[in-house]
Write a structure and sequence with these properties.
The protein has five helices and two strands; from the N terminus they run H-H-E-E-H-H-H. By secondary structure, it is mainly α. The longest helix is centred in the middle third of the chain and has 29 residues. The protein starts with a helix and ends with a helix.
């Protein structure tokens, strides 16, 4: 016999011939649509509806990343522009810091050491078209327009790739 039947006075707890049978009123109450998530009837549910996995998201909501990609595309465009500008603008700065200046190769610089090694390797002179001669030419006169376009394109692609 159940504790509920004993409390209500129904049935005889001392009657062994009467087997206990489960009743409908002893079952767990099923949750209906007017019950809140905490089990109190009549109150509206508090907070966002829970998803099937209990994550707190409603499966009817649109995905958070499925909206407009405008901000991502705008960020990528900005990164591409900045990458291209940095690539083109950094060449004279880096070459000047290395010692390839408009007035020639700076004394006691990396460029001077490279020129010395190239001259020793070629028997006293720097070969035309070598790396040292090309870097000195770019340091003195700058890059050509086509070289700036190519370098800017590569920098833009790299900047957009870094943005993701």
């Amino acid at each position: 016999m159940s504790a509920k039947a004993i409390e209500s006075g129904g049935g005889d707890a001392t009657d062994p011939s009467r087997p206990e049978s489960p009743s409908d009123e002893e079952d767990e109450p099923s949750q209906s649509s007017d019950h809140a998530s905490d089990g109190s009837p009549g109150k509206p549910p508090q907070g966002p509806p829970q998803g099937p996995d209990g994550s707190g998201s409603d499966p009817r909501d649109p995905p958070k990343d499925g909206g407009s990609n405008f901000s991502h595309k705008a960020g990528m465009a900005c990164a591409a522009v900045i990458g291209g500008a940095l690539a083109v603008g950094a060449v004279p700065v880096v070459l000047g810091a290395a010692g390839f200046t408009g007035a020639g190769i700076a004394a006691s610089s990396l460029a001077a050491k490279m020129m010395s090694a190239a001259a020793i390797a070629n028997g006293g002179g720097v070969a035309a078209g070598s790396l040292v001669a090309t870097l000195q030419s770019v340091g003195a006169a700058g890059l050509s327009t086509s070289s700036n376009i190519i370098l800017g394109s590569v920098g833009s692609a790299f900047g957009a790739w870094l943005w993701g």
